[in-house]
Design goal:
heterodimer; A: seven-stranded mixed β-sheet; B: alpha+beta; Arc Repressor Mutant, subunit A; two-stranded antiparallel sheet; 2 strands; 57% helix; transmembrane helix (chain A); FtsX-like permease family protein (chain A); membrane (chain A); cell membrane (chain A)
């Protein structure tokens, strides 16, 4: 007999795969019969086509129904949901603890997620970000994030463009642009007085560029008013951001004819040429307005180039270094110039150690730490759910046993338990959303971010939140689902409620609890270490006084001298000085050597201050007493520099006094030949001028009796009424200065600002450990209350036999005390290691002490014991007759 | 849940009035099944439908209708013989139940009543 023609195999297999067993035989039979009928009538092609179409027509829920016709009245999925909802409503404390835990935990994780997303997407949505590079100049031992102009401050507009002209002439380069934000280290800072329509405004955050069209090409700004082509055509144009336009022209700015309006900034007229959207927070640059002018008011500029697709950046930079003398005459002969390098745009935010960086960079170690903490919190949530459900399911075992007896398969039980977990997790969605919405502004303030609360509306955020909750639900329900699904029904009936799942001490629940305790102790200890380091930084002897000192800017020595005379008449003013305010970021270093040695050092920090500043800061300097005897200036070096130089020379540091030191020996000049000679008048103790993150620097300090020039002032006062003193100082200031407003700050605050990032991470870490502790304690509370419930009878019998309430509480506490001890022992090396890693960022730091971990462990243990005792108290105090009478 | 309650009511009440929620396609298929008498299964019903109604219908649509009718208790089924064309697979043969026949009769009666009331045809 000839075999029948057969329909397409894959379609047939697909049918077998999705179709329920009960329905398969008849459906497949019908389809095969139809196939054969059509095959003879219309031929193979049509029959195949119709067969496939038919198979897909069966691909619908009707054919999936995996239960037999007899059970059709029992819609299983409905039942799962019904049981899940009943359980959620019935076990209110369990549901409450879980909901609260999941909500707090998932919200915390979401916030960390938003933060990490913000940091990791820096500059990434700039089009073709991977083809954009920033040039960096290496000079002495430092890398400058900006390039200089060939004649520095004296550069004519054409000279300023020399580098760009060269770059634009290269085939590999698509565009090249310069810009300088006014708030950058090379931008001069300050405020701008903008006048128009007889009104005056103060503005900050200008972005100067002399190559606007290229700037727009590399960093496209979204124009809301005007067009980029016209805005950057020609110079003396000003382009505002949306929020600045709103501030200056009111909410209806977009209805006004602003384009072409004349704005005067300090005697120069600019034409308003456009309004662009605000700069998003995750850009490495920022501005309130762009000034497009022929000449950038600085000695250099941040320089960017966009390469053509497929160009090797290393080759381009190599070519630039080969031709560098054309741009900077004598560059290659200058032995201090170490060549030009480039950093890719997306890497700028993660490149540490460049000088004059525009925004604080992200430290990958911090980001990793936060991601880890988020993971820890997730683990705690999962563990909580798992532990709680294991404890709770103990008295639902009979239900599951009954289900199995009635024919439920293991996967039915698993599916039901998973449904409950996922449903519970999804219930948190609105609460999480609310928490994030409320917390985001505070979080922004803490972390100095600009995450918009609008983010929480974004479908992507909601989707991420949903996904996180779903995964959390699935993971949380996994263990109970698998464990109870597999357990034989007889054992489900036999087990009394409340007993540990297994008799061993290190059963699944206790392992999870130990892990939780460990993470809690670890987080607590690390927070403590961070706090200790911050205190250390705050109170460390810096080698000068920082209390009771304010500082402010002053325009020139003449005004300084006048103001100083006026201030010294005030009784509460102790001393006044010019220049040398500590606590700045590191700046450019210079080379120096002893006159009679060959070795040149390149890490010198030169400083100028007048004798008044030295006295205000209380820096001890015996050599400086010569200033009071009429000497004009004194040159001293600090101990770090002295030791380095003495080692080279082979003498003791003290013997350097009276010798000649030469700064910038490579600089050929008419006056001294090479460099500038200084006779060392004395050696002073090291003082911490910069952040304690850096080791002691070599300071070359020139102290003068009267300052030749002055740009900042230090004033020390002894007073209980600072506001009165400051208004007196301000009044005196206004008698000598009429243009610049009085803008002061406390030195202590400035020094604290050096550690803003560290303090922020400390606070975040502290808050997250708090969240972790609350979550862990909540989980524990749930477990203990279920254990106590399950052990009611046992406790009753113990009491009848004479046990006291105290001894019963101890039976509860014993186990957790032991777990906590184990957890502390494991956490000890881990947290000390992690703390040491964090402390590596500081040159001056505390040594992590082991007692901190022990104390954290003890503290956590006390909390746990307190909680366990409160939870178990009811069981321990109950009259035995109440629990025993049923038998 | 509401659906299962309704089905429950449909099955356990003998009142024919409550069974009258019968769609046009359901009625046709039910009629075809009664007509074919013990030869009604998915493929054959779809063939008969095409033959008598002059329209084609997919086998899955027939299956869906028949399973609905079965849920309503209007037809019942048993596994019939296997044939070579079906690769040795058995057919599920459908038959109208007493309730099904009653519903059809009721529909016919009520229709007839209406027919009789149309003036032109009298």
């Amino acid at each position: 007999m000839k075999p029948h023609p057969t329909p397409p195999k894959w379609a047939d297999r697909f049918l077998i795969w999705f179709c329920s067993e009960e329905l398969l035989e008849e459906i497949q039979g019908d389809l095969h019969e139809a196939f054969l009928y059509r095959y003879h009538k219309h031929g193979r092609t049509t029959a195949n086509r119709l067969f496939i179409a038919d198979v897909f027509r069966f691909f619908k829920p009707y054919a999936f129904e995996k239960y037999s016709r007899a059970k059709q009245f029992l819609p299983m999925y409905n039942n799962y949901f019904k049981i899940a909802i009943r359980n959620i409503l019935h076990r209110k404390s369990f549901t409450g603890i879980n909901l609260l835990g999941l909500t707090i935990g998932v919200s915390a994780v979401m916030l960390i997620g938003l933060y990490l997303h913000h940091e990791l997407t820096y500059d990434r949505d700039t089009p073709a970000a991977d083809r954009i590079y920033r040039l960096m100049n290496n000079y002495r031992a430092q890398t400058y994030s900006s390039m200089y102009f060939a004649d520095y401050n004296d550069s004519a507009p054409e000279v300023q463009l020399r580098l760009l002209d060269y770059l634009r002439g290269q085939d590999a380069v698509e565009a090249a642009a310069h810009f300088v934000p006014s708030q950058s280290a090379i931008g001069g800072g300050g405020q701008f007085y903008v006048a128009f329509d007889n009104r005056r405004f103060v503005a900050e955050n200008a972005l100067f560029t002399n190559s606007g069209a290229s700037f727009q090409e590399i960093f496209p700004q979204e124009f809301i008013m005007g067009t980029p082509e016209e805005a950057f055509y020609g110079f003396n144009k000003i382009i505002l951001t949306e929020s600045l336009a709103e501030r200056w022209f009111g909410g209806n700015w977009s209805d006004q004819a602003l384009i072409g309006k004349a704005l005067t900034i300090e005697d120069e007229v600019f034409a308003l040429a456009g309004v662009v959207a605000d700069v998003p927070g995750n850009r490495h640059y920022d501005f309130d307005f762009i000034i497009h002018q022929k000449s950038i008011p600085s000695w250099g500029a941040y320089t960017y180039l966009k390469l053509n697709p497929g160009v090797d950046p290393a080759r381009m930079i190599g070519q630039l270094n080969a031709d560098v003398d054309k741009i900077y005459p004598g560059y290659t002969e200058d032995e201090l110039s170490k060549g030009i390098t480039a950093v890719a745009l997306p890497d700028i935010h993660f490149t540490e150690g460049t000088l004059y960086e525009l925004k604080p960079v992200a430290r990958p170690a911090y980001l990793t730490t936060f991601a880890l903490v988020a993971l820890v919190i997730l683990l705690i949530i999962w563990t909580n759910y798992t532990n709680l459900s294991v404890a709770m399911y103990a008295d639902r075992q009979k239900e599951m046993g009954m289900r199995k007896v009635l024919g439920a398969r293991p996967r039915d039980i698993s599916f039901q338990l998973l449904t409950e977990a996922v449903l519970l997790a999804l219930l948190c969605l609105p609460f999480c959303w609310m928490i994030i919405y409320t917390l985001l502004p505070h979080f922004n303030e803490l972390m100095a971010l600009e995450l918009s609360t609008g983010l929480s509306y974004q479908p992507l955020t909601l989707l991420a939140m949903l996904g996180l909750l779903l995964i959390t639900g699935l993971f949380s329900g996994l263990y109970p689902a698998l464990a109870y699904g597999r357990r034989p029904s007889l054992r489900l009936f036999g087990k009394p409620a409340g007993k540990p799942v297994a008799g061993r001490f290190f059963n699944f629940r206790n392992v999870l609890l130990t892990g939780q305790f460990m993470m809690v102790v670890g987080l607590l200890s690390i927070t403590w270490y961070i706090y200790q380091q911050m205190e250390y930084v705050r109170t460390k002897d810096l080698g000068y006084q920082r209390e009771g000192i304010i500082y402010f800017n002053i325009d020139g020595a003449e005004k300084y001298t006048k103001l100083k005379t006026a201030l010294e008449r005030l009784p509460e003013i102790r001393s006044v000085g010019a220049n040398g305010v500590p606590g700045s970021e590191m700046y450019n270093q210079l080379t120096y050597k002893m006159q009679d040695t060959e070795v040149t050092l390149s890490d010198g920090t030169d400083q100028y201050m007048d004798y008044g500043s030295l006295k205000t800061l209380g820096i001890r300097c015996e050599a400086c007493q010569a200033l009071e005897a009429g000497k004009e200036r004194v040159f001293v070096i600090n101990r770090t520099a002295a030791e380095k130089l003495a080692r080279i020379k082979g003498v003791s540091p003290e013997e350097l006094v009276g010798e000649t030191l030469i700064t910038e020996p490579e600089w050929e000049n008419e006056e001294f030949g090479f460099g500038v000679p200084h006779v060392i008048d004395g050696i002073i103790d090291d003082f911490k001028y910069f952040s304690l993150k850096y080791p002691n620097q070599s300071h070359l300090l020139t102290v003068s009796a009267e300052p030749g020039w002055a740009y900042e002032m230090l004033v020390r006062a002894e007073t209980d009424q600072w506001s009165a003193t400051i208004s007196k100082i301000a009044a005196a200031y206004e008698t000598v200065e009429s243009v610049r407003p009085f803008d002061f700050n406390f030195l202590e605050d400035r020094l604290e600002q050096l550690y803003t990032d560290e303090r922020r991470s400390g606070i975040l870490m502290g808050s997250l450990s708090l969240v972790a502790i609350i979550l862990a304690l909540m989980g524990l509370a749930g477990i203990v209350s279920y254990i106590a419930y399950g052990r009611q009878k046992e406790i009753g019998i113990r009491k009848v036999l004479g046990a006291s309430a105290g001894s019963i509480l101890w039976t509860f506490n014993r186990e957790f005390t032991l777990l906590m001890a184990v957890a502390t022992v494991i956490a000890l090396p881990l947290s000390m290691l992690l703390a040491a890693k964090w402390l590596e960022g500081f040159a001056f730091r505390i040594v992590p002490q082991f007692w901190v971990v022990l104390l954290s462990g003890t503290g956590a243990l006390i909390l746990v014991m307190l909680l366990v005792s409160i939870q178990a108290r009811k069981a321990a105090l109950k009259q035995p007759v109440e629990v025993l009478r049923s038998e | 849940m509401i659906k299962s309650v309704l089905i429950f009511l449909l099955i356990y009440s003998t009142s024919i009035e409550q069974m009258q929620g019968l769609g046009y396609l359901e009625e046709t298929v039910l009629l075809l099944i009664m007509m074919m008498d013990e030869e009604a299964y998915g493929f054959s019903v779809s063939q008969a439908y095409e033959e008598h109604m002059g329209k084609s219908i997919s086998i899955s649509a027939i299956h869906a209708v028949m399973s609905r009718l079965e849920k309503k208790g209007l037809i019942e089924s048993f596994m019939g013989g296997a044939t070579a064309e079906r690769g040795g697979r058995r057919k599920r043969i459908f038959q109208a139940t007493a309730a099904g026949k009653a519903v059809i009769a009721e529909i016919k009666a009520s229709r007839q009543k209406l027919w009789n009331l149309i003036p032109d045809l009298r």
